[in-house]
Design brief:
There is one protein chain. By secondary structure, the chain is an alpha+beta fold. It has four domains: 240 residues, Glutamine Phosphoribosylpyrophosphate, subunit 1, domain 1 (4-Layer Sandwich); 193 residues, Rossmann fold, CATH 3.40.50; 93 residues, no CATH class; 62 residues, no CATH class. The strands form three sheets. It has a seven-stranded antiparallel beta sheet with strand order 3-2-4-1-10-9-11, covered by helices on one side. A six-stranded antiparallel beta sheet has the order 5-6-7-8-12-13, with helices on one face. Helix 5 packs antiparallel against helix 18.
């Protein structure tokens, strides 16, 4: 796990070394163990070292910050060059099946000097080219400089687990980095808001999907894609998607057969994700996903595994899962650590959290997650396993009930739909509601009518606290998230959740929180083989007719995870009492809504925001997550000096 950055100029850039050094410094938290630089004039030999040289003729610079997890020796140092000195790699992530790939490459005549995955990745790219990418099991973002073909490849893993951003302004160098904060070292890249993404964040809480970001001049390499740039004129010469998720159910296995195969795939993933030369721990909430990871770690690691778990607790709160975490930790024989937080803690640390997250985030639960990684770092655990992705592939969220209901209604199964909704499990802070029926009915509408339906439902795309005129002037119409069109509404909605709405943001939150503490976070639910298999199953295997979420996975984990956990019907996760927290800090919230920074954002109407906030405080309206989005945006825009032109 590392931080990578680079600058490519089409002419000698005297200040390149200074800028590269500055970018690398801003990523030091991602790799405190070592650093490395590559510099090249575009002709002749390259310069490699731990510090950049002030070369006036330099046109190409790559930097690498290393968090040593596999083979911490000098043999795995980066930037790494191929034997023929044609390919040069800076790599962030892990290739979990590197041992299997290594054996295949040895049979093809390759020899290796290191014991890690970086050299295997470099050899695989040399041997197979971009055809190597579908062979990789892992999380990765890397840049490959090919000095013979005079090109730069930027590549990202199938789910976008590891970040990779770039900017290619008309006037200025091509720049890439693991985090957007590194771009502050490049004056040619201003921090201007992207109006479309701003609307999606404020109205729907959406970020991080596709190629665009909230900063108009910075893009990200899309998941499962590679981009090729010419080193000579900096043009984007190719962009390819090397893997696509197919959402349509096609397997005809019985649910028991499906559970058996799912167990095999999951345990194989755990085995791969345990590969490390440093201690490995786990985030344990007490839910089915994290408990399954911890118990599977014990099963695959055996008694020799020194298993540490880290849990966020919320004592005397409906969001506390401590009893379930204790049950899972005890069953696994784990050494458990627990952390808690207060609203005062949040206010004291929120500025640092906003800075490290790079872009606004959806809720204060991200702070709870940050506390878990802080505890992991304090305990000296450098690698953590986490359950991100499980809810998106196994229908763990409440809103998937609407998609499943729509599938049943589409087929005329009205009684089954009614049975499903009557059996909906409780969710903290929410009760079963006709809103699920309305959402399901909305999915059945033609796409062109969904925006109109939102207006009539009282949840218009442009509520009064948004400056609709500002968005119209920039031809931003709605930003409504894409939804399933049928006939397999649930499977399609799961795919959208994986690629557009839920998972991309969650992966960014986890990456920034973990790497801010120099911890590598691994997500064993997210391999292409496991995800493809799950989404090939009938929808009833994921969300059962009795309203049981993750039905096939619960069955797959029987005998491994305590039945008390497998039979849970509530869902919490790293949730926080956000309404109570913000209410207790009402003076702080009000001061932000009344600040000069808020008044200087033309896309919002702070006077209406303040009125809505006061209505909540005085009990005239219910809490809404938009309150947090307002606060977060205002502080982020001020900290990052975002321009709203």
């Amino acid at each position: 796990m590392c931080g990578i950055a680079g600058i490519i100029s089409n002419r000698p850039l005297p200040e390149l070394s200074e800028r590269l050094r500055d970018m690398s410094r801003r990523l030091e938290h991602r790799g405190p163990d070592d650093r490395g630089y590559l510099q090249w004039s575009g002709e002749g030999p390259l310069q490699l070292g731990r510090d950049p040289l002030d070369l006036p003729s330099c046109r190409v610079g790559l930097s690498h910050r290393r968090l040593a997890v596999l083979d911490p020796s000098q043999a795995a140092w980066q930037p790494m060059s191929s034997r023929d000195n044609a390919l040069h790699l800076v790599f962030n992530g892990e290739i979990y099946n590197y041992l299997e790939l290594r054996e295949e490459l040895i049979r093809a005549g390759y020899h290796f000097q290191s014991r890690g995955d970086t050299e295997v990745l470099l050899a695989a790219l040399s041997h197979w080219g971009t055809a190597a990418l579908p062979r990789l099991v892992g999380m990765f973002a890397f840049a490959l400089l090919d000095t013979k073909r005079r090109r730069l490849l930027l590549v990202r893993d199938p789910f976008g687990i590891k970040p990779l951003y770039y900017s290619n302004p008309a006037e200025g160098p091509l720049v890439f980095a693991s985090e957007t904060k590194a771009f502050a070292a490049i004056p040619e890249i201003p921090s201007a808001i992207h109006p479309g993404r701003l609307l999606q964040y404020l109205r729907f809480g959406l970020t991080d999907h596709g190629s665009e970001t909230l900063i108009r001049n910075i893009q990200q390499v899309p998941a499962a894609s590679w981009l090729e740039f010419s080193v000579d004129d900096l043009t984007l010469t190719q962009q390819k998607t090397y893997w696509r998720l197919e959402a349509e159910p096609r397997h005809e296995l019985s649910i028991d057969e499906a559970a058996s195969e799912l167990q095999r795939l999951f345990l194989q993933n755990i085995q791969w994700h345990l590969r490390s030369d440093v201690p490995v721990g786990a985030a344990l909430s007490g839910g089915i996903d994290s408990a399954s990871i911890v118990l599977a770690m014990r099963k695959r690691g055996g008694d020799a595994l020194n298993l540490n778990t880290f849990t966020y607790i919320a004592p005397e709160s409906e969001f506390d899962e401590q009893k379930y975490a204790d049950l899972a930790g005890s069953a696994a024989g784990a050494k458990m650590s627990k952390t808690a937080a207060t609203s005062q803690d949040l206010v004291q640390e929120i500025e640092a959290l906003i800075r490290l997250q790079d872009e606004p985030f959806g809720s204060t639960s991200i702070y709870a997650q940050q506390r878990v990684f802080q505890a992991s770092a304090a305990a000296g655990i450098k690698v953590m396993l986490d359950g991100q992705g499980a809810d998106e592939i196994l229908a763990g969220y409440r809103y998937f009930f609407a998609a499943r209901t729509a599938s049943l209604l589409r087929r005329g199964h009205w009684l089954q739909a009614l049975r499903l909704l009557r059996s909906m499990p409780p969710f903290p802070g929410h009760a079963a509601s006709p809103a699920v029926w309305m959402h399901a009915a909305g999915l059945l509408l033609p796409p062109g009518l969904r925006g109109t339906a939102m207006q009539f439902s009282g949840h218009g795309v442009m509520p009064r606290w948004l400056n609709a005129e500002w968005f119209r002037e920039r031809t931003i119409a709605d930003g409504i998230p894409r939804q399933a069109r049928g006939p397999h509404y649930l499977n399609e909605q799961l795919q959208i959740s994986l690629t557009e709405t839920s998972l991309p943001a969650l992966l960014r939150y986890e990456d920034r929180n973990s790497m801010a503490n120099s911890v590598e976070s691994r997500v064993p639910f997210l391999t292409t083989q496991l995800v493809e298999f799950v989404l090939s199953l009938p929808e009833s295997y994921l969300l059962s007719p009795e309203g049981t979420t993750k039905a096939v996975f619960r069955r797959a984990m029987r005998g491994l995870v305590p039945e008390t956990i497998l039979s849970r019907r509530d869902k919490i996760g790293f949730a926080t009492p956000e309404a109570a927290w913000l209410k207790s800090q009402h003076a702080w919230v009000t001061s932000i809504l009344e600040s000069d920074a808020a008044a200087q954002i033309p896309a919002i109407r702070p006077e209406i925001m303040k009125r809505d906030w006061q209505n909540f405080l005085q009990g005239r309206s219910q809490f809404d997550f938009r309150f947090w989005r307002w606060i977060n945006l205002i502080r982020w825009a001020e900290i990052r000096e975002i321009a709203f032109d």
